[in-house]
Each structure stands twice: as C-alpha cells, then as structure tokens.
Write a structure and sequence with these properties.
With 388 residues, the chain is an alpha/beta fold. It has helices at 20-30, 46-54, 57-62, 76-91, 96-105, 134-147, 170-180, 193-201, 221-234, 241-250, 255-268, 277-289, 292-301, 304-316, 325-330, 336-348, 364-371, and strands spanning 36-39, 64-69, 113-115, 122-124, 152-157, 184-190, 212-215, 319-320, 352-355, 358-361. The strands form three sheets. It has a five-stranded parallel β-sheet, sandwiched between helices. It has a three-stranded antiparallel β-sheet with strand order 8-10-9. Helix 7 links the parallel strand 5 and strand 6. Helix 4 packs parallel to helix 6 (134-147), helix 11 packs across helix 12 and helix 14 (304-316) packs across helix 16.
Length: 388
C-alpha cells in the first residue's frame, strides 16, 4: 500500500486529515463570492486545504479552479507567465475548443498555441521573455476569466511575493482587475503574516478590506493522532499512540514536519514490527541530519553577527525580547542595535519567523539541528513532553 503520510500534492480525502471546520468555512466564503486571505506559516497545509476544497463536489462540478504558486516569481512578467500557463494547462483536458477560446481572448499569447507533433495535443510553448507587455497580457487573462462559461476560483499562493516586485503599482493594478472581474473569486494565500496584513488591512493599501481573513493553525492533536493511528493499523504497523503524540509535540503540530517523521517511520517499519524508543529516535535523527549539508551551507553564508543571533534564538526555541539587555548579556551578543539589525535580516531571509515579540527558527528541522550544538536539542528533552 502507498505511504499514507503525504509530503506533497493532494490525492483524496482519505489522506487528508481533519480541517473540517476550515474546509466548511473556506467553501462557504468562496461559493458566496468572497475573496479570502488565507494565512499560515509555510508548510502548515494551506495548499492541501485549498486542493481539498477544490475537490468538494459543489466546487468541482460548478467552478473552474486554478492554483498558482508565485513563490519563485520575481516580477510581473513571471507572474503573468505562471498565471497564463496554469489556466491553459487546466483548460487543456477540456479540449481544443476551450484552448481556442483561451487564445481568442488572450491574443498576446497566441504564438504559444501549438500542437504536439506526435500527440496532436495543444501545448503552451512560450518563453517568459516572449511576454512583451505583461500588463496587456494580464488584462487579457482577466477578460478571459470574466468571459468564462462557468464561474472561476483562482488561488494565488505566496501572494506576498508581489510586494517584492520591482514594478510600481502592482497591487493597484491587480486590485483594479480583481474588482472588475465579476465571475471569479480569489484566494490569496501566504506565509508572511505581517506583509499580508499590511496589504489587506492597512487603509493606505489598494487591497484594503477586499478580502476576508482566514488563519490556518495546527491540526487538532487528537484528530491527527486518530488519523495516523488509523493508517498505521491498517498497514499492520505497530506504533503506540504515545509515539504519534511525541512526534506531534516535538513539532507543535506543524503539518509538514510531523508528516515527514511519520512518513519515514511508516517506511522504516516492517509489517507487524513494533516501534520502540530507539527506532523512533533514529528516524527523527536521520531525517533532521539528512539536511546537514544544506544547513551547514546556510550557516557558512551568514555574517558573524547574524550567526550569533541565530544560535541564541535556536537555543531558546522561542525567544522573547531579544533586544533586551538581559537576552544580549545571556548570549554575549554585540549590542542592541546589531541584534535588532541581524534579526531583521534573518526575518527577510526567512530563517526567522516572528509572532509578536517572539522569534523562532522558521525551519523546525534546522532549529533542532542547531540546538544539537548546544546540548539542549532533541537528545536532551528528558522529562519533558518533547522528549524523544
């Protein structure tokens, strides 16, 4: 049987844990023409939730759905390319008629309409550099969405990236198109809470009050334990629920990291083999240290002041008031100003995450790997709920 602890993609509701309320809330909002801002830390399960909603019968039957991840984009041209390609690829299974309709409106991409010489299937064959006027093509794409024979739902993941584009007035341009498009509902999802809150809830910004906020938190612990236990039992893997609870606690329910450990534990255990403390600890250790080369390279690229602050926050796990005299003295940091600068730079590099005045290492595996240097990491949680 397939490993039920998926690390990417969406298969079916069988492999999707809980999120009943979040699914119902998101479905209700988007089917009632509300745009949504979906916010959570990266790898908490936003993509899975959106895909799960798109597979609900009410939506899959009555809407065209598109999911565009713009995390790797750096300008409007790349954004337009990703959006156009996603719409094309989703329409392609509908047949040549739908593709022809697409290019009859989006005329600036007409050169991209070609047929595969072997299969005869339409292909999207255009380079990013061939998009001569990104704003013109963007306007055509929105015209196409508005002319669709069914309402559309467009999910744009890591939407905060547009704030980093070099072009001026991107938010205003997009807001104008979104506002004029009557047949499309948008999900703007992202992981950088402070940027998205500023974009959508600051009165000075174009997207102000144009969408409803939905925050995605960790899956309920009991729900996840029951989900994991069910799949392990079905596969004949003998894992006491205490190990599932221990895994959940170690990563505070952060979906990707919990799933990654459970995925490896599932693959390591033979049918009817009992999980024990040694096996569990080795699975966690092997997973974390499989990234050691990457983590070492990250450290090597950081200036000394940033490294010092990174080590201090990693050792704390959740570090509060890092610019206070007490914190600086405790970790022999250089000064309040240099600590503040280093923390800001680490936030910009997405090595840190911040919730209020509490800092932590964004990547949970990286954080535990760093803690191992101090003897306070995953081998040293004796007597606590984070004990391995």
């Amino acid at each position: 049987m397939r490993n039920p602890f998926l690390l990417k993609g969406y298969i079916s509701a069988e492999y999707f844990c809980d999120r009943k309320k979040e699914t119902a809330d998101l479905n209700r909002l988007i089917t009632n023409d509300n745009n949504v801002v979906l916010v959570s830390p990266r790898r908490m399960g936003k993509t899975g939730l959106i895909e799960h909603c798109f597979h609900q019968k009410e939506i899959s039957k009555n809407y065209y759905t598109f999911f565009v991840d713009i995390y790797a984009t750096g300008n409007l041209q790349e954004f337009v390319y990703k959006l156009g390609k996603e719409i094309f690829e989703r329409l392609k299974p509908q047949g040549k008629k739908f593709v022809e309709s697409f290019f009859s409106i989006i005329t600036s991409l007409r050169p991209a309409f070609k047929l595969d010489a072997i299969t005869g299937a339409p292909v999207f064959d255009i380079g990013i550099g061939e998009i001569r006027s990104a704003e013109v093509t963007l306007e055509e794409i929105f015209k196409y969405l508005n002319a669709s024979d069914k309402p559309c739902i467009v999910a744009i993941d890591e939407f905060q990236q547009i704030a980093k584009y070099p072009e001026k007035n991107i938010e205003a341009i997009l807001r104008t198109h979104v506002q004029k498009t009557q047949k499309t509902t948008f999900i703007f999802s992202g992981s950088q809470r402070h940027i998205l809150h500023n974009m959508f809830f600051s009165p000075s910004q174009p997207f102000y009050q144009s969408a409803i906020l939905q925050t995605l938190n960790a899956i309920d612990k009991n729900e996840y334990v029951n989900f994991a236990d069910k799949h392990l039992r079905r596969a004949g893997k003998k894992v006491d629920i205490s190990f599932i609870q221990r895994c959940y606690n170690l990563f505070e329910g952060h979906t990707f990291y919990v799933q990654a450990i459970m995925n490896q534990l599932f693959s390591e255990l033979d049918e009817n083999e009992d999980c024990n403390d040694k096996i569990f600890a080795e699975v966690v250790h092997n997973r974390i240290f499989s990234y050691e080369t990457l983590f070492s390279e990250i450290l090597n690229l950081l200036p000394e002041r940033q490294k010092e602050v990174l080590y201090a926050v990693a050792k704390e796990g959740k570090a509060q008031n890092i610019t206070s005299g007490e914190f600086i003295k405790k970790y022999s940091l250089h000064s309040t100003a240099s600590t503040q600068t280093a923390a800001r730079q680490l936030l910009e590099k997405e090595i840190f995450t911040r919730n209020g005045n509490v800092y932590s290492v964004y990547d949970r595996f990286f954080g535990l790997w760093l803690q191992s240097y101090y003897g306070t990491g995953m081998y040293c949680y004796q007597g606590s709920e984070r004990k391995l």
